[in-house]
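Order emerges. As here.
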Amino acid sequence: MSAIVILAGGKSKRMGRDKLELDLDGRTLLGSVVCRFTEEFEDVYLSVADAAKYPDVTINRIVDIIPGAGPLSGLHAALRTLSGDGVFLVAADLPNACPLAAKRLIELSRGYEACIVRLQDGRLEPLFGFYSRRLLPRCEDALKSGDFRMTVLYDGANIRYVEPHELGQLWDESLIMDINYPEDYEKLQK
């Protein structure tokens, strides 16, 4: 089974404070995601820019090798650090990220370099998907070029785009709803 990498290296600029410390049913947003994924997967890692951040989270950490490049830094460090065929990325600000949907995407990833959800309007969700070790050279090229968009990895790669209906009952639009602004958090609490 692929390792799960929870991306927690962001700066929460749009929220105005550390969004991963926000309360979600008695846990922090980060603690909630960590709990759900450690219940279903053995190998769960926290990807951070600063090794000392979130001292209460006791899972193993992966620290950005090349900081300042957003989620691409986290993916790069994970692919460089971990053994195995690839990793499954989960943004820590996805409060409804479902481990069972992650397992399904990992299953659908076999034979592909990445497996991500493509919504009906064509938007992609790169921060809830599988990435093969074979993408490491592309990550390094992107980091060197200064193009830190996750989607730069997809050009010319063998990508499995999963339509929501392929996840069946595991799909819900809220699965990929992220928390960036105070109003997102207010909406989540309702």
